[in-house]
Amino acid sequence: MALKIFIGFVLGVVAGLICRALNFQWFVELSSILGDLFLRALRMIVIPLIFSSLALSVSQLGDISRLSRLGGWTIAYYLITNAVAVTIGLALVNIVQPGFGTMLSEGKPPDLPPLQLKTLLLNIVPANPIEALAKGEMLALIFLALLTGATLLTAREVGEPIHQLLRSLLQLTMIVIHWLLAIAPFGVFGLAVRLAAEFGLAVFLPLAKYALTVIVGLTIHGLLVLPIFAWLFGRVYPFNYLRHFAPALLTAFSTSSSSATLPVTLECAEQAGIRSEVRNFVLPLGATVNMDGTALYEAVAACFVAQAYGIHLSLAEQLLIFVTANLAAIGAAGIPAGGLVTMPFVFQAVGLPVKGMALILPIDRFLDMFRTTVNVLGDIVGCAVVQRVFAKRGFNE
After folding, report:
1. Helix, strand or coil for residue 235?
2. What is the rounded (10 degree) CA torsion for 116, 122, 123, 124?
3. What angle do CA 185, 187, 189 make, to 5 degrees?
């Protein structure tokens, strides 16, 4: 499957470049429809998949104390790796200083709603659960799933009909996932055609230094820091373990959506031997709140824009970026360009003009592929870490 997805992506890039050169816009449009249908199909099953898997994983833990242990270790891992990612990004952007001397056109400022911390916190608890689920508000979805699972865990026999309903929903969703995996190479092909035809190669040249800073940071975190976490705390050989997740990582790279990649990641985790209690809790939660790549990216982007405007950021202001980038990453949706929605939160925290985001928009979609891959990689390593820690402190108790 991984090879087929990779071949689909490569062929899509080649076809996109040819269409760009020969102006075959009709082929790009047709391919885009194919890619969009695949992406919409994946998003279609995200809500029932996250809700049923997360609620079931909580309800099957046996007791509330076990829930607190599993949740505590998972959140601790997420916070630590996010903090490390932002630290790497800030260090690199201060060393390379990609924004100084940059002469870029600001263009039209993006029309994005500012995100306030109060709004972020209030959105966790929905006033209307049905509306929140219909709109796909992921933080509210996770809260409702955890609340449902904890309630079922406490209710026991009374909640058995709902427990059986969720189990059936998860099993039916997994059947659909298997069908979607069969057509994944074609969907990835369509997405790659549009990407290559739209951006080509020359569009990245003016922002090459900035892009390189982000990619180097993501590479350090993804190929050095996270494997170290997997080896030290998960007690797995990193690259032997990660080979099971090649389809998930390639899907993340091509779709730029950790939520859309979740079905593939869950399937890979089962093949890698991750226990159902762990994978059904860690991965759905991580697809929404564990965004190492997004946190790193937003920190670098804020400093880059400040440098491009000639604004000097003090140590205190960079510490504020450190905090807000972590919070913004938690609130970012696991969809393509989801980090752009939370970016104003970081900019406004240190007084940067939000219109400066126009400087980074031309290559945001390109970098989105890399940061989404690191986001998913962080979730994958988290499974190994949490499984080992919880096996010692939870499963055997």
Report:
1. coil
2. 120
3. 70
**Tokens 């079905």 — which residue?**
263
CA distance linking residue 105 with residue 213, whole number of Å: 20
For residue 360, give every residue at least 6 positions away whose Cβ sits within 8 Å of its Cβ, in sequence order, or none. Answer: 207, 210, 301, 304, 305
CA-based max dimension of the chain: 67
Whether the pLDDT of residue 111 is over 50: the answer is no
Residues 7 and 29: their CA atoms lie apart, in Å, by 20
What domain range includes position 110?
Answer: 2-395
For residue 118, the Cα-to-chain-centroid distance in whole angstroms is: 22
Find out whether 9 and 190 touch, Cβ atoms under 8 Å.
no
Is pLDDT larger for residue 202 or for residue 174?
174
Handedness of CA 78, 84, 87, 88 (dihedral sign): negative
CA dist 46 and 349 (Å) reads 32
- What is the spatial distance between Cα 379 and Cα 234, in angstroms, rounded to a whole number? 12
Q: Region 65-85: what's the mean pLDDT?
A: 80
pLDDT at 285: 79
- Average confidence score pLDDT of the chain: 80
Q: Which tokens in the block code for residue 66?
A: 């076990």
DSSP state of 313: P
Please state the pTM of the whole predicted model: 0.70
For residue 277, give both structure tokens.
């209690």
Question: CATH number, domain at 300?
Answer: 1.10.3860.10
Domain count, the chain: 1
Count H helices and E strands in the chain, helices first: 18, 0
Identity of the amino acid at 35? G
Nearest to 140, CA basis, from 115, 154, 122? 122
